[in-house]
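Sequence decides. Our protein:
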Amino acid sequence: MIPDSTSKKMPEGNRRPAPSGEFAGRTVLLVDDDPAHVQHVRQGLAPHGYTFREARDGAQALSAIREHRPDLILMDVEMPGLGGVEVCRIVKANSGEGGFGFIPVILMTARQAAGKVEGLELGADDYLVKPFDMLELGARVKSMLRLKGLQDALIEKNRELDRANKELARKREELLALSRTDPLTGLSNRRYFEERLQEEFARARRYRSPLSLVMLDIDYFKRVNDTYGHPFGDEVLRAVAQVTRARLREVDLLARYGGEELIALLPETSPEDALRACERVREAIEGLQLEHRASDGTKRPVRCTASLGLASIPSPSLQTMEELMHAADECLYAAKGAGRNRVRQHEE
């Protein structure tokens, strides 16, 4: 590539005013194998304050485009090796954001109609026949740079819109997650659980697949609140929620159903497997190392247990979602009546 020409340093008193214009500083790539013509174009456009880059053939032009990303390409049609039409085709074929982006191309030729239709069909934005009037060239260059500016502004606006849409989607997801989450335990809330229960129950009935439902209640939780205060009761509830979640599978849904009561939905889980899961949960809660720190700094260990009720489908006596939940709830109260810290399972 031919380096940019530089003017000789002039005495301070003889310096001309710096060129200026609407598009001063924009980069124009001149591609022509005729140095005299390149110089002629540079001189004609110099008063507008453009920055010029030069290339002698198509290969140099593509190298300059990759390196400098010009705002406009003024290119001769006929050059040794890779011609102007071929370069134009490559530039326009790579005009996406991952390529060169949008760069206007003005093709120039010494022949009246040669390649004009082909060049325009390949995406050339304008076409000039040599010799051309410099005023006309200047006007067309300005028009193309204006088009480039509008296109760049549109791309930036689209990027801003895309960023705004992504941020909006992220906020929407956050809001949706918050609307489905119990703030104290971080588990799903009752409303979301009931939505999922309807879906899973319908799916289990349709495909005759097993589905188990577990209701869990912390034993003597009111006594804990009355003895140690509600803040400590909240700590207990969070600890129970955390250890229960850790003993279930990722596909299982655990929610806070109300007060000290948790509820779990175990898809594709037989009564036998569900009972084993409930025992794991019960043992983990019983093994919690809880400790209350009084205002005077003294510490006291606190024991925690839970009672669990379990019901599963398919079952001849459980034909509706309400019947499944009622059966699990009855089993929960049976566990409490039998002495607490145990699991009771619905039986036909």
Observations:
- Residues 134-179 form the longest helix (46 residues).
